Each structure stands twice: as C-alpha cells, then as structure tokens.
Amino acid sequence: MERKKEFLIRVYVVIGVFCLIAAALVGKAFYISQIEGDYWRAKAEEQLFVLMPFEAERGKILADDGSPLAISLPFFELRMDTKAKGMKTKTKDYFKDEIDSLSLVLSQTLMPDKSAKEIKNWLIKERQDKNQYVLIAKNIDYNQLELIKKFPLFKHGQNRGGLRIIKHNRREKPFKLLANRTIGLHRDSLSIGLEHQYNQYLKGEEGQRLMKKIGNHQYLPVDDVTEIEAKKGKDIITNLNIGIQEIAQEALAEAMEKHQAEKACAVVMEVKTGAIKAIANLGRNENGELVENYNYAVAHSSEPGSTMKLASTLAMLDKGSVNLKTPVSLGDGSCYFYDKEMKDAHAPRISAADLYFSFITSSNVGISKLAYASFGNDQKSFAEYYTKFGLNKKTGIDLGGEPAPVIKDPARDKTKWYGTTLPWMSVGYETQLTPLQILTFYNGVANGGKVMKPYLVKAIVEDEELVQTIDPVVLKDSICSESALLQVMECLKGVVLEGTAKFMKNDRYSIAGKTGTAVTNYFESDGVNKEYQASFCGFFPAEDPLYSCIVVVYNPSQGGYYGGEAAAPVFKRIADHCMRMNLEPEFALNQKPKPTLTSELLPVGNYGYTNDFKTLFNHIGVPFKHSTAGEWIRTIADQNGVYTFAVSQNNKIVPDLRGMGLRDALFLIDQSGLKAKIHGSGKIVSQSLNPGDPVGQAMIELVLE
Q: Nearest to residue 449, comparing CAs of 477, 483, 473?
C-alpha cells in the first residue's frame, strides 16, 4: 500500500511539473505575441525588407566639341510578380481576364519563338507556383519599355499588373572603335583607360533602394521607392578630336593592311599646350583582324631607332662641338667602334659629308662618328643631355600603364655601359622609350624648347556646369640654347625638303620631322628573319607649329619597312586633315562670296537643333533613331539609318559650329554674346575661334561650303 501511494505521488509530481512547463510555455507565448508582438513583428519585417545599394548613372566622357565618346544608357530587366496583391480583387480578376491578350502580345513581340498558348500555360503555372520573379525580358531600352507598359495586364502597373521593372545602366561608345583603348572600360573585375583614371569623378555617389526579399538571393524593389537618391557622376571633357581621331585610325588601318604589320599606333599633340588630340592603337586578334587591344602609344617601350638621332644631334649642337657644316666621312657606309660594326641602311651617295647631310639622309655612320668625337672623352655629359631633355622620366600623362624610360648612364649603369654604348645610343639603340615619350620630346623642340606635359582631359563638368578646368603644365622651360634649336630645326625641315621623307613636301604647308627604322631583333646572330619598326615623328607647319605627331608601325612585312615607306604616309594623311581643318581660306576682296541670309530654311549639317532633324528625317522617310534627350544633337549615319547623340552647350565657351547649318550656328553665337562674319553658303566647315576656348573675343568668322 505504501509503495502504491509513493508511486502515485511521483506520478502527480511529474504531471505537476509538466503542467507548470505547459503553463510557462503558454505564458511565454502570450507574452511574446501580445506584449512583445510589435517588437518581433518589426524584426521579421527587417529580415524581409532591406536597403540595398545601387550604382549611380556614370558620367559621360566627351570629345573636345562635346560629342559623347562614352555614355551610360538605361536598359531594363522586366520581371512579373504573379502574387501581386492587386491582381485579384473581390470584384475583378485581372490575371484571368487579360492573360489571353497578354500571351498573344508577348508571342508577337518579346517571345516570337513561343506560341500564345505556350506562354499562357507557362504564366498560369508560374502563378500556381506563386513565383514573384518571373523573367519576361532583358536588355529592354526606354522606347521598348514605354510600349511594354501598355501591354494587356502590364498596363495596370505593378500592384495589379505584376510588372516589375529593374533598371540597369549600360556603357556605350557611340563612335565604336574610335579611341576605344584610350577611353577604356570600367567593370568590377577590370578597369582601364580614362574610365579607370577618372573613375572618382565618373562614378558618382551610389544610392540605396528598399528591396523585398522573395527568395534566395532574389530581391524586388518595393513600389519603386528610393530611400537615398543616387547622384549622377560628373562628365569629363577630353582634348580628343573626333575628326583627327577618325583619320588617324583610318590611315593607320590602311597602313597595317598594306604592309601586313603586326601592330601600329599614332598620337597627335597640340604643340603649345600638350593637349592630346588623337591616340590610335591597332593590333591583331587571333584571327588576324584589326582590333584596339592595347595602348601601344602610351605603354609599349622599344628601341626607337633613327627618330632619336634628334636627341644626339641636339646634344652636339647645344654643346657647341659641331655645327651643321661640321664634316664627317661616311666611307662606304660602314665603320667600327671597338669590334662592333656600325652600318648605314644604304651605301652613301657621297663619302665626304657633314652633320646636316648625315641627319637628313639618316646616316648611322655620320651621326655616331660625330657623337663619339663630341662626347667620347666625356660620356657622362652625353648621358646628362638626355636627362636635360627630360627623356629619363615618364611624361605623366593622365592615363595608366606608362613605363619609365630606360636611358643608360655611365655612372649609374657601370656594368651595362660599354665602349659601344654611346655611338649606339646616338642612333636610337640601347634605350627604351614609348612613342608618347618620343613625341613629347619632339613637341618640346617644336615649342621653342619648352616641354609640355601631354594630357587628355581638359575639364570636369557637373550638370552642364564647369566645375574644374585642367590647365597645361610645363615640364621643362628650356632644353637647349636658341642657336642649337635653330640649327636642329633646319635639320628636321631638311628631312622633308631633300632627305628621307622628301615625298611629303607640298606647296600648301611645311612639315619638319625625322624618319626612323629600327631592327628590333638585331641581337639575333643569324639575322635571317629581321623584324623592323618603322616610324616618323615631327610637327607642322614647320615655321609656326600647331601640331606634333608620331606614327609607329611595328614589324611591317611587305610593301616596304622603312619609316619613310610605312609610317610617313600615315603622318602625311593626318597632317593634311589637321591643316584642312585649321587653315582659314584667304579670299581676295573682290572674290569674297556674299552671305546669303534669308528667312527660308537654311541648309542643315550633321549637327543642329533636335526638332529640325526630327521634322526633316520624318519628312524624307529616313529611319531616325533618337536615342537621347537634348536640344542639340550630332547625327551619325550608317546602313540602318541615322543615330543621334546629345551635344551639351555652354555659353561661356566658344561653341564648335563645324557641321552646323547657318541658322543654328547664329542662334548659338548670339547666346554666347559673339558677333559673326560669314563667308560662303551651305554648312560651316571652319571657324576663326577655337572650340572650347573661353568667350573673350567679340567677332567669330565662319566659312561655309
């Protein structure tokens, strides 16, 4: 009996404990749901809704006239929320009523590979599965989006129609391959070119958007609410000129094909400022096709060859050990320094020559003999001249990837400075320089001895307001005496007048420069398959230089491999274009065409007022793809029709009027407070004031053709 009683007591205790636990659980549940309910529900909501960052619209990269080189265009990803709250109400089932119409429209537009029935069955299944993230389409542009928003069901918006719109910005280059490598690209995994160098300005400030989590790594924006608005990136205005860039790239491509070259580059620089007006780089892909795959002009170092005879010649003239008439024997075009033979490419026309003749005919023997005679007993002084010229330092261009020059010094590089180093350096070997570094030196000679820092970007703009101007920078005030400069200028002119580039001589303007032909694998003992580097570097017009330019063609294999054959013709085409663009026609007083100003519609060019272009192209039936907003646009045509790109205008700077009709040009001139003097009729081909300069003169002359 006692045992039974003891057992029952234990059972009651256990039951009591369980009852207490149950009561505690019920009490806790009541406390959580009623007392702390609001707190925990808020916590749940925090896990369901999150603030997620999104990138700002990236700023534009613009050419010198405001034409877009890189822009961000909006593209959209469309998703369908089949669980949208308002899709079915007490009185109406929008999904059921309009799914047939929507399926039919989708089969005719976005999903032509599927029938209306297949689409309907697919969407019904997704709705049954309560899918809130059904992909409808990707890469939809703004015009397509506006049309899709009028589709059945979707026209009721996000809550009733279930249409979710996710915006993405995609970087586009309107001029495609023009300056492609210089403009560069910006991705999470790779950033190069101007896109990388000026990313701090271009990227803007990211925003934050309230997003709803609907699945594993799946989020949808909540009613298009943006908690923190993104701030658009700033625009950068470059010195690149579309016309010069285009002709440089075109001429370079033709030379690549003609000479079956491995790669090539060209750079055009404004002499007085160092502003880069064009950089063209071409290589070949695995299929042998021409591509802009590397910035050879800025980042590729090599032994330049004869273009650097300018440095050794200028050093000799500045020291005063020689003049243009200093004699030198060329012999049979061969001589020895210690046990190493120095040879000319061709047997000399005369054996008794002077410095001037040696330079314009690019005689290795003549230049190296004179350099050794001048500096053989003071080789440290010879190397110091290269430092004085600034050839031992990077140019500092606002673009990444520039390597440091390799210039030997007998004190610093004792183990690498040989008895043959000085004569070989004097003709452009045993040094490593990029094309841009060579051009910067030549530009200094063209600029009266003042070396300018090459630069690509001239201004930063925010909301069409100028926020920063980047001014030219002087690297060296003077690199040589005036006497040396005058003499070396005569040598550079002589190359074109009667030397290795005399085919470039013309009656319209003068060119000064130097051809270069380097054997890049001369160190190979067999010498069977020689590889060449053809170049031409110079400036024009020679008397008052506006532009300097270098062209380098690497390993041309047919049609000539000398600098005068492979590189100089490219230089000439670029120079011709630049001079046509900048030289103002001179009219005799009795030959000046009278301006034809009437109230009738004046001829339009490829640049003008947006609405005029719309009216014109719609009237004549030309496909007109107006892909951007703006009052002023530039047009580009191809086989598919006419494309437009916005051009920003700033009344405080001289507008670029080239390509405009007169009516539009006069409007912009008036806005800038200028007065106009007009010659001819048609569209504007040149103007007296440089585009982008501050408005400071009262008169601008326009030439129309």
A: 477
